[in-house]
Write a structure and sequence with these properties.
By secondary structure, the protein is α/β, with parallel strands linked by helices. It contains 12 helices and 9 strands. Strands 4, 5, 6, 7, 8 and 9 form a 6-stranded mixed beta sheet that branches.
Length: 308
């Protein structure tokens, strides 16, 4: 669990780990030079399974790698300091991995909550089944690293998180895991993660996400022949569609239209076969309506935007 200045949330995150039905774990909390009460809150938990580590303030990837170097388990799970696990999370994943030796990484469906922990009313994000490298290149199905449980031997083979990427180090590592052997990444159906959406998240920084994506594309184009120019162009189209959805949520409608038009240009007909593209097209149309008509249409559209 990497943490930097998450005092508002980290107590609940730690409690969600300590409340797991499977109690045989170590919780490695990696403080990335917090300036608030995050460390004091962790210390107050007073559980012998918690180990508090110090990172150098180099970002979440370096903090996660610090935790990995200290971890001793056969399996590794990740949890961001503002997210929550449901009590059966670890047991479900470890039972699944124990019964399926051909799988190296499992991830859970995600329920969305707001800053106060209230359900956002968005559909559950659920990607169920086995996924190839190509599947995961086109779309990062796990949504958040907080949903991962990974076989440690495979994680060591793939390597750690790449701190040189502006964002997307989780996507990058998931892709490198998928290169180890075919269809070794699997999504489980039951929602096990409460994923918090709040202002200021790195995942909501659209400009940074765009830079990180370009870095990931360059890296994987050089890393493997499976990252073909066509696949990378299709994946970039989906990334641009996702950025359009993020911009739309923040009422940055001109930016949303720019991202969406780029997505259509890059994705072509394959992108048009996805329901989310048509949902976004309707949203873009609504953004052009006069003010008196725009808000009712947009409010209705947001209810349909869950997976856009």
């Amino acid at each position: 669990m990497p943490v930097r200045d998450a005092a508002q949330f980290i107590g609940a995150a730690v409690n969600s780990v300590l409340s797991q039905t499977m109690g045989d774990f170590e919780l490695l909390v990696v403080d990335d030079r917090s300036s608030d009460e995050s460390v004091a809150i962790v210390r107050r938990a007073q559980d012998p399974r918690i180990l508090l580590l110090a990172a150098k303030g180099e970002g979440v990837s370096a903090a996660r790698n610090t935790g990995l170097r200290a971890a001793s388990g056969k399996y590794v799970a990740f949890l961001d300091a503002d997210d929550l696990w449901v009590p059966e999370h670890l047991q479900l994943h470890i039972d699944h991995l124990g019964n399926r030796r051909e799988v190296d990484l499992t991830f859970s469906s995600v329920k969305w909550i707001d800053e106060a922990g209230r359900p956002l009313g968005r559909p559950v994000s659920s990607h169920v089944g086995r996924f190839s490298y190509e599947d995961l290149l086109l779309e990062y199905r796990p949504v958040t690293t907080s949903s991962w449980v990974v076989r440690r031997s495979a994680l060591d083979q793939a390597g750690g998180f790449d701190g040189a990427l502006a964002t997307g180090s989780d996507h990058d590592l998931c892709l490198r895991m998928a290169l180890i052997r075919d269809l070794n990444v699997e999504g489980l159906e039951r929602p096990q993660i409460l994923y918090r959406r709040r202002p200021g998240q790195i995942t909501a920084d659209r400009a940074r996400k765009a830079v990180g994506w370009c870095q990931l594309v360059d890296k994987h184009a050089a890393l493997t022949r499976r990252a073909t120019p066509l696949k990378l162009r299709q994946a970039t189209a989906r990334l641009r569609r996702a950025l359009a959805a993020l911009a739309f949520e923040e009422e940055a409608y001109a930016e949303a239209r720019e991202h969406f038009s780029t997505a259509l240009r890059l994705g072509g007909w394959p992108l048009m076969g996805d329901r989310r593209t048509w949902v976004m097209a309707a949203a873009m149309g609504a953004s052009l309506l006069p003010d008196a008509l725009r808000q009712p249409v947009i409010l209705f559209g947001r209810r349909l935007m869950g997976g856009a």
